[in-house]
Design brief:
Blueprint (H helix, E strand, L loop, with lengths): L3 E3 L7 H8 L5 E3 L4 H7 L5 E7 L3 E8 L9 E6 L2 E7 L4 E7 L10 E6 L4 E7 L5 H10 L15 E3 L7 H9 L4 H8 L6 H6 L6 E4 L3 H12 L3 E6 L3 E7 L5 E3 L2 E6 L2 E6 L5 E8 L4 E8 L5 E7 L3 H11 L3
Antiparallel strand pairs: 1-10, 2-7, 3-4, 3-9, 4-16, 5-6, 6-13, 7-8, 8-9, 11-17, 12-13, 12-19, 14-15, 15-16, 17-18, 18-19
Length: 320
Amino acid sequence: MSVMAWSPAPAASPLLRQCGAALGDRVLRLQDEPLAILKALYRLGSLVVTTFTSGSRVSQNMHYPAFHEGEWWLESVGDRCRLRQSLQVSQWHSVLAVLEPTGALPARSLVFFDRQGQPLQQMAVAPDSGGLAFEELVCAMLHPDQQTLNPPAGLPRIVAGELGSLSQLERDWAGSADEEDFSQLLQRCHNQRAVLYRSVRDSFACMVRPETLPAVLAEASRRDNATTLCVGNQGVRLCMTAPWSSPRWQGSHCHLAHNGALVSLDMAKMHSLWRLRKPGEGQVITALEALDKNGNWLWTLSAGEAESDWRALLRDSVIR
């Protein structure tokens, strides 16, 4: 049986502190009803949606559909590209409306935070879209208290269990049919993926040189191969398949682009890179997964249009 413990209340994120300093002036607190606000986003027209993660940032132009109960995902398919956004709605907690530019936050934008005060997504209304609808939404959802923010609270966590023997670990790994099964496996090591990956043989998880990732991205662009990049946080998981542009570097940041989507990966946050093999639909799926210094997930890069092309790409690009 899992043992539950209460983690201490985390410090507020820099973005939350920045918004708190402008509260009641340039920033307004909305009611803690993020799901109702998400359902109303389709009325705002064109949005610039930015997803925050610990090691990356993704911005894209999109129109939200009219959400229905229980359908907390978005999917759009274009020519050689696909985007799927899955929302973990239980983690969405509070919302702030930015009326005037505040730091890097643009005017007429909404910022959503999780239960620990970490930013999940920012939705900015395009200049020629949704002005009146934005004002109406803010007025309808305005919180009566404009002096204080809802402070982050500690959440229960699952204490790590026994990892088990090597043979049992690998049997459970090979039998994980989906992400939920794999998450249960990760709970044994308190979700520290590096602990799990070091506990199995190289045929399951093998550490590769960090330089592999930029090499693979550059070669994929040269061959015009589509690849799938997955990033996320506590409340959002984005999986984007596209023939990404050639990587553009700005310091430690690697920038990728395709059809209005802009991705920035902070390579300074990447402490280790792993080649993984997991069960997929009728075949073994190979992926590259980046972890931070604490063994937490940053992003995953995997096949786009064809697993065979992806494996050929890895054979020519992986640096051991």
